[in-house]
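note to self: the first set is below, dont mix up w the second
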Amino acid sequence: MLKGKTIILGVTGCIAAYKSCTLVSRLKDLGAEVWVALTAEAAKFVTPLTFRTLSKNPVITDLFAEELSSLPVPHISLAEKADLIVIAPATANIIGKIAQGIADDPLTTIVMASNAKKLLAPAMNPNMWNNPLVKENCKKLKVHGFEFIGPMVGKLACGEWDVGRMSEPEEIVDRITSLIGKKKDLSGKTFLITAGGTREAIDPVRFISNRSSGKMGRALAEAAQKRGAKVALISAPDQVKSAEEMRQKVAQAVRSGRPDYLIMAAAVSDYSPKVKDLKSKVKKTEQNLSLELKPTPDILAELGQTKGKTKLIGFALETEDLVKNAKLKMKNKKLDLIVANDASAMDADEAIVKIISRSGKVDSLPKMPKSMIAEKILDAVLRL
């Protein structure tokens, strides 16, 4: 989503500077070119070498450094290159300097010379954040078009639980993509996406289910919508409960208007109790309880037979022979794309997945947040 975009990341002297390392990695994963401008104070928390390794660019600590000699006038060249300047963490000091038009170091000099959009992620002690002078400086910068994200309430380095914590890198990335990302490459496309884990009732209070949280399906729906698509989301267990209810809801949605893409991210139960009493609770006794199960409808296979021009994307959770079993599932159920992962992805914010196409190509992704995996899946969907 950020391919071809140049981002200047300013890092200032705050313990939260360590989070900026993750931020650089996330931005690089999305295709951005990242240049880090490090203040002298920030360099005491994270070394320039760390940011140079992550960004694959020289770190800006001195505008007269030899490694910047390829840039005729570094602060002007970088200011003109930038699509966005992000300062994370942004201390009270840097906010005050920028608000007063001070340019006495590489970061503030670049900020003053750039017409690019600017995003600040404050991080500081709550007394500093609530100081009227800091509030006035922030208000002044907002008047001049600066955007802010955070700070959040949380545990601070001083030990207090209060406002002042820097927003998490994933949240900052989301804001960055909303500001400069290629958001409309799915404009005019329609998506039907399922999410969550279904529940198969045993009695009025008990059910069989799985550990699916629905995070992946919801991340896909949100990402597709941000990129301009019209999205319908069917989520378990809030919208539908059982596999049969999911089957009916999906069939109804398909009939009402065939989507361009149907992504079955929901973890649909494979079995359901053969006999169940939904009126009476099964009483506990000293005897063993036998529960006979029957297969639930194979929704994915049914959709594969009737999909027409709709591109069908499925998920495979395997505990062994991941790629082999995922490819077999894709073939048997006539999928156009399959996303494979192991059980560690369930109910987690991050995952390691493999995106497999019908040609047999396997795109192995490193561990990353599901919001970023969603972007990678959508990129693959666009290539179908």
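second set (the one i keep forgetting abt)
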Amino acid sequence: MSKNNPNEREIAFKAIELLEQHGVPPKPLNYAVAFEHISGAQPELSSFLHPHLQAGKPLDEILLQDLYDKHIASDQHKQFQGMRNDMQGLLQTLLMTISESQDHTAEYQRELETGVKQLGDKPDQEALARIAANMISATVTTHKNTQKLQDHLATARQEADQLRAELEAQPREAMIDPLTGLFNRRAMAEHLEQLWENPDNTLSVLMLDIDHFKRVNDTYGHAIGDIVIRNVADNLRKSVRGEDVVVRYGGEEFLVLLPNTPLKDAVTVAESIRKRIEALRLVRKSDNFSLDPFTISLGVAQRRAGDEHDSLIERADKALYSAKTSGRNRVMPESETDAPTLH
């Protein structure tokens, strides 16, 4: 949305006017629907709203919410990316409108006050006083109308600030696993893309899962299983550096990205994690119920020349499988018979 486009400013005023005609507050969501309709940017939305309004039917927030969901926020990518940009543009328009309204009001008042002063120096004071009174009345009316608009826009601005903050947070929330608070696989892919940009970065990967986790669920139930997963996640988070990335890969499986870490050092990190989980004891405070100890197995791989994301993770997964089949509760580095590593 262009900040200096007068046509968009006109659309913005018409959108607010439409909402005021129907007694609907100019909240960002309501404003977005009205703006899209008046601008013609959403033909399907307008094809519904135009005959609806022509028939004299009212607008309300329930209808506007439905139209917003169907025509503006239906596509996830648009919701997370385009809608965020659109709302930032709408916020700029609202701020601009407030500023221009204030400037206009102040200028108009100054001109009228100058006019009143000049009229007061001329003959026929009674006639001129009536003119002055009319001018003052017009000023007061203009000021009241403008102030009303400013109040509405100020409210919309506050709500737009809040909505913008929520929209900014949504992409991050979409990358977080709700059970553990760790990154999910979508976030992992983005981090890998960033790390891949530097081929000299010695990147290692840990792939791990909880040994005999099905037995935990079958014995204690899925609620206890979730507690086990969360505790493993918490201990993983505490076992790595700030630049490392811990991911819930799926179910009871986790992945850790270790930038600037050669294979040998990554094996040391993995062994430290393994021992930490092995020593973990979970006790329910309400009745001192103690969960049987559990362990994890880990596979370790390092990025090699010619690697893609999938090939690196596949080798770590293969090493994890070797750790599981050779007895569990152990760390297994990838096979050293493959292509040489970058470092």
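remember for set 2: Residues 268 and 331 are 9 Å apart (CA to CA).
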